[in-house]
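We emphasize that the prediction below concerns an isolated chain of 438 residues; any contacts that depend on oligomerization or on bound cofactors are therefore not represented. The input was used exactly as deposited, without trimming of termini.
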Amino acid sequence: MTEPTKRLSAAETKGLRTAKELEGHLAWLDTITPAALGVLAIASGIYTYLGVSSILEDNGAMSFFAALAYSIAVSVGIFVFWSYMLRLLPAMRTASGFLGLTVSTIVGSLAIVAMSSWLNAAALAGSAAVEQHLDTTVRDYQSALEQAHDIALSAQALGREVERARAAFEALADQEQSGQLSGTAGRGAVFRVLTQKTEELANLEEQIRAQQPLIDDSFETGNQILGRMRALIVAPGPVEKRSVEFAEQSVRLAGVIARLDQLSVAPLVARAAQDLPASVVLPELDGRTTNVRDAQSSTIDSVLEALDQRGRTLERAADEVLAREPPIQTAYNPITSAEAVIRYAGSFVPSWAGAIAIDLLPAVLVFVLAVTQAAIRSGRDGLPIEETLTLADLKAALNAMRDVEQTMSGADAEMLKRVSEKVDPPAPADPPPRPAES
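Result of the prediction step, given as a token string:
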């Protein structure tokens, strides 16, 4: 007695219908998936070739074949890897198997990014990244030039301090000449000391004044070079050729910045301030009487004390300029497009996203297929086999049964033939006739 067939619930019927519908969709998608995966792999290989070509310095046949071989290897590797994942990961039924293949997918994705994606980004945004490197270098040079010019101008401002000191000692010399300092009018010992220091400060003031045209000329030359470097950044043509001229201009600009740094008069003022009280040549006191000579000696001591105070004031002002941070030692270092893309990756996020997406887009397909296969299994699990058979499965089963029947019929016929041969053996053949005697 056969058992009654269990009727499916509404939920089971819905799950089975959904599973069959999803299987139909997957059957159609399987026809285009290999072609789509191949197109993605070839596109990645092309951009990888461009990225490798930008790194190789030689443009000969060997470099061409090396870049071509690498790009072909990348395309094949991407196609094979994602073909494995598209087939194997969605078919995993155990958690350990699914987790293991997921880890393998992540490791493989990182390997693809390491061998291909950064080269794709170099092909997509390599020239723009190199131009940004040039622009960053120009900004560094401009900052160094302005800083050197500012330090030189600050040192030029020391000329006002020197002028004040010269004017003060010049006024003291006039007072001494009129007899208001030592009490004796004329150009005696005190007057000669004051005149000596006035002339020293006047010479220092002239040296400072002579530096100003040189500073202005150097700063103007530096700005002209910066203008040329900015023009090279946006000029048409290959960025590699522009980089060569850019490097030449950067060497010139580095020399201008060094010259500006040397034009600063702060070290000169600092040394002059130290020598101001120490380099006094004391003249012989020429007073007619002892009282006059004592007055001259006392006045000279006061002058020396004033020189010491003025010297310390000038030295402090010069030290403030010398204590300023010197210009940054800027140098232009040429880099390849691949290095530029990595260094300035934050400025080229869209290019990096596109370069990575073209390689890792199949990962989305893998997990979409895994979710779909899980939904199909969820709709079919627990149902009797006769409910899950599709028309294709039924046709395949019928064809298999027909083949089995044909095979069995052939086997039976062969067996009957052998049995009949054993029961009724064939009659022996007649011997051949003997030849007649002569």
